[in-house]
Design brief:
The protein is α+β, with helices and mostly antiparallel strands. The chain is about 30% helix and about 25% strand. The chain has two helices and ten strands. The protein starts with a helix and ends in an 8-residue tail after the last strand.
Length: about 180
């Protein structure tokens, strides 16, 4: 049989289909782990962002000798949903709400992923000039913020605790937004 060199170096249709089937199986196995990796990375980044915001607010309160508060964004005042972002501001009258005529915004944090959840019982959190939690957050039974990527029961949820003394720490153990 006389075969042309061109045909000896080519793939057959069966070889191509087997290669595509193997690639599809490998992709089907890898995609779920990438989703979990993505959720964990997003949760780590968001919880770190929240923790750094609390540290920033507390250090500014001590540095400026004034009350510094954090509250969810809602046009020109404080809202209720932390997932839409929040403001860190010098709270001149220490009432825990943003008054555009008196208070000065230190930093605005943009909205988080709209598919995620933040669970907390606090509508605002304030730090006094001594670095202590003050206002309604001081008497709250829980000053915990829980960030849940994608679903309220995601295993990659992260929690941030704020003690009345102003200590900010990551929660240990399992947390969720249910």
């Amino acid at each position: 049989m006389n075969f042309n060199k061109y045909y000896l170096n080519a793939f057959t249709l069966i070889e191509l289909m087997v290669s595509i089937a193997i690639a599809a199986i490998l992709i089907a196995i890898a995609v779920p782990s990438f989703t979990d990796f993505y959720d964990n990375s997003r949760s780590e980044a968001a919880s770190s962002n929240i923790q750094q915001s609390f540290i920033t607010a507390r250090s500014h309160a001590i540095s400026y000798g004034a009350t510094v508060s954090l509250c969810p964004v809602s046009s020109s005042s404080c809202g209720t949903d932390w997932i839409n972002g929040y403001d860190i501001f010098i709270d001149v009258n220490s009432d825990g709400t943003f008054d555009s005529s008196d208070d000065q915004i230190i930093r605005s944090i943009d909205a988080f992923n709209s598919n995620d959840f933040i669970k907390t019982s606090l509508s605002t959190i304030s730090f006094s000039a001594e670095g202590m939690v003050t206002g309604s957050a001081a008497s709250a039974s829980s000053r915990q913020f829980i960030y849940c990527p994608s679903s309220k029961t995601n295993s990659n949820a992260k929690g941030i605790d704020v003690s009345t003394s102003g200590k900010i720490s990551l929660s240990t153990g399992s947390v969720n937004c249910s």
